[in-house]
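Mods, move this if it's the wrong board.
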Amino acid sequence: MAEPPKPQIYPRYCFHLAPTVNTWCLLHAAVVHDLEQHAGFEGENFYFYKNLPIKWVRIIGVVVAIDEYAGRRIYTVDDSSGACIECTIGAPAPVKKDAVRKEESEPEKKAADIDLPPTAAPYEDIRVGSVVDVKGRISIFRDEKQINIEKMAALRSTAQEVALWEKRAKLRTQVLDKPWVLRKRDIRRCRQEAEQSEEKADRKRKRLKEMIEGRAVAEQSVKRPHDQSKASSDEQPSNKASLELRQILQHGGAGKYDALGL
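Not the wrong board. Structure tokens:
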């Protein structure tokens, strides 16, 4: 049996019509790993479920591991979908025990030299075994998809978790499992709007360029007379001094300045 044709990937200027753009898509971790990436959209980190563009995702699950690395912390989350996913966030580097012993052995510092304590890492209250609601952006590290955490919260009750399960199932049935199809006139309208927006941006760039160039010319025109007047004023005292010296020498003052070599 022949495979069904793949859905059309629409141009970038049509993405704002997709129901999955600019929203937290509540997905299973296994679905996040299965999202595809198409040529031409890597720079904006868009991934695709069929032809639906997805950039921001949300998952719920149990934290099964927490790993600390220099400058980042990784929470491994299991949502019982058959795959775990790593959720990463920036964090202060852990302080080595040797450094702590060295600080304790040093004499007391002056008040002005005391270092402030390092900033506490976010989400310190989340431990292994916590049920979490994670929101973030998809990224790839060593050919594996990760979630860069934007927000994360521990769920306090089973009722919260069940409510999110229902929301995830609703997204699947009402959005993901339905084909996303645009009419040709909608695509043409989006293209025209994109072209108009680009023309408007070009005109704005040209106006800014003209303003900057005009300002530079004006500053140069103001600076030239000022420099010329300054140069003429600098020349006048020296010319005056030379004239006075010639007058003194002409009126018999030459012997007075012989000792100076003038």
